[in-house]
Design goal:
Blueprint (H helix, E strand, L loop, with lengths): L1 H15 L9 E2 L29 E7 L7 E7 L7 E5 L7 E4 L1 E3 L2 E2 L2 E2 L2 E7 L7 E6 L6 E6 L10 E6 L6 H11 L5 E4 L12 H18 L4 E2 L20 H6 L15 E5 L2 E5 L11 H12 L7 E5 L16 H13 L4 E4 L5 E4 L2 E2 L13 E2 L5 E5 L20 E5 L3 E7 L4 E10 L2 E11 L1 H5 L1 H20 L1
Parallel strand pairs: 1-23, 12-13, 13-14, 16-17, 17-18, 18-22
Antiparallel strand pairs: 2-3, 3-9, 4-5, 4-10, 6-9, 7-8, 10-11, 12-24, 15-16, 19-22, 19-23, 20-21, 24-25, 25-26
Protein name: Purple acid phosphatase
Catalytic activity: a phosphate monoester + H2O = an alcohol + phosphate
InterPro entries: Calcineurin-like_PHP (IPR004843), Metallo-depent_PP-like (IPR029052), MPP_PAP (IPR041792), PAPs-like (IPR039331), PAPs_C (IPR025733), PAPs_N (IPR015914), Purple_acid_Pase-like_N (IPR008963)
């Protein structure tokens, strides 16, 4: 009966919402009052340092391999070096296994980081809850995480999407609202701490505070990281000219597992999704390492096993806000044709501090001498969604271009987060939730139709047969 109810709800939802309907785009009239944001003071309880000498802090995990059977667990000990060791098992307080990793630290201007630990925990079982312990003696801390289902086309899974978070009171609302969503993994589209808004030693201090701030989520579920412009930290006046120095030291990615030459771009498979992370601030023009890697990675995508193809980047390809308008044009020119050819389902981006969702459109027919000058409807194109509204101190981007372009389906300058709930190989539910004075308010939603399984007549027949069989089994009960 639950499956039948889901089918009825899905049918109604499809009639009311689609990922490329013919209605005019909507510019929300909601106006957010708090502008600009302010960072939470460092003595606030959200940044509390765990008690005990050398107690682990800033705990965060990410996927550690290509297929979801490993995690990278990272943390910082502030007082002195100690073994990078994780004890873990499937029962709370009973740790049957041990994994060891590596420790590092770095300086930024005169700031000296704590001791940063990264441990790969691999050979895990799918769909299993693991408990883990880090640290020594009375200062040890315990957490847990759950592995995803095995790779397969019909495993439901729920992702959260957050971008441009920072560490303001609005950031806190976003984080708390997300944690109530029931999502299992965050797809993070860049700009983590906004520590680059500070100078000298305060840059490193604000990376530490942000790590403690997000630990309430990052210690318990993977965040799939991508970097933004505020993570670059190119600061010649401080003699700091190594881009992404703090980010790369603190937030590792499983790039080697997907044969990437850089931690800035990589791919993972999780449940029924193939997720590709691109770098907006690394070379991506023809024949560069990122370009070559993406060309090969798209060939590795198996839509029979992972029907959902998702791309993350920081700069949006399509954006109708005055802020950062057309900044994504060079990446669009390099990669949009590939996205359409390989039927990418959705592209998530940040950077613009507002929310916007596009229809399925493309501009791949245009060239300097002929072709369509403007984006046109394209059923093979992705939906482009900008979620750069986490809550950082720069405030909202409230100046949308007028009139609203035909490619823009919905836009609003508010703080918030999104969720993508994959139900099966053909459909997923998408929601964007606004932060309205501390309340979580659903503001935009639609059914996302899978590009691969919706495009082939053979697959549509298979889907119809699968649905008929499912309803038949329900009726027999």
């Amino acid at each position: 009966m639950k499956s039948l109810l889901f089918q009825l709800i899905l049918t109604s939802f499809v009639l009311l919402n689609s990922d490329n309907n013919v209605n005019a785009g909507v510019t929300s009239v909601f106006i957010r009052e708090e502008y600009p944001s302010k960072d939470i003071p460092l003595d606030n309880e959200v940044f509390v340092v765990p008690t005990g000498h050398n107690s682990p802090q800033q705990v965060h995990i990410t996927q550690g391999d290509y297929d979801g059977k490993a995690v990278i667990i990272s943390w910082v000990t502030a007082d002195e070096p100690e073994a990078s060791k994780v004890q873990y098992g499937t029962s709370k307080g009973k740790y049957e296994f041990t994994a060891e990793g590596k420790m590092t630290n770095y300086t930024f201007y005169k700031y000296k980081s704590g001791y940063i630990h990264h441990v790969l925990v691999d050979d895990l079982e799918y769909d299993t809850k693991y408990y883990y312990k880090i640290g020594n003696g009375d200062s040890a801390r315990e957490f847990w995480f759950e592995t995803p289902p095995k790779i397969g086309p019909d495993f439901p899974y729920k992702f959260g999407i957050i971008g441009d978070l920072g560490q303001t009171y609005n950031s806190l609302s976003t984080l708390e609202h997300y944690m109530q969503s029931g999502a299992q993994t965050v797809l993070f589209v860049g700009d983590l701490s906004y520590a680059d808004r500070y100078q000298y030693n305060d840059v490193g201090i604000r990376w530490d505070s942000w790590g403690r701030f997000v630990e309430r989520s990052t210690a318990y579920q993977p965040w799939i990281w991508s970097a933004g412009n505020h993570d670059i930290e190119y600061m010649p006046y401080m003699d700091e000219v190594v881009p992404f120095k703090s980010y790369l030291q603190r937030y590792p990615t499983p790039h080697l597992a997907c044969k990437s030459s850089s931690p800035m771009w990589y791919a993972v498979r999780r449940a029924s999704a193939h997720i590709i992370v691109l770098s907006s601030y690394s070379p991506f023009v023809k024949y560069t390492p990122q370009w070559e890697w993406l060309r090969q990675e798209l060939k590795r995508v198996d839509r029979e096993k992972t029907p959902w193809l998702i791309v993350l980047m920081h700069i949006p390809i399509y954006n109708s806000n005055d802020v950062h308008f057309m900044e994504g044009e060079s990446m669009r020119a390099a990669f949009e044709e590939w996205f359409v050819h390989h039927k990418v389902d959705v592209v998530f981006a940040g950077h613009v501090h507002a929310y916007e969702r596009s229809y399925r459109i493309s501009n791949i027919r245009y060239n300097v001498s002929s072709g369509d000058r403007y984006p046109i409807p394209d059923k093979s194109a992705p939906v482009y969604i900008t979620v750069g509204d986490g809550g950082n101190q720069e405030g909202l981007a409230g100046r949308f271009r007028d009139p609203q372009p035909d490619y823009s389906a919905f836009r609003e300058a508010s703080y918030g987060h999104s969720t993508l709930e994959i139900r099966n190989r053909t459909h997923a539910f998408y929601h964007w939730n606004r932060n309205d004075d501390g309340k979580k308010v659903p503001a935009d939603s639609f059914v996302l139709h899978n590009q691969y399984w919706s495009s082939s007549l053979r697959r549509r027949k298979l889907k119809k047969h699968h649905l008929s069989s499912t309803l038949g089994r329900i009726a027999s009960h």
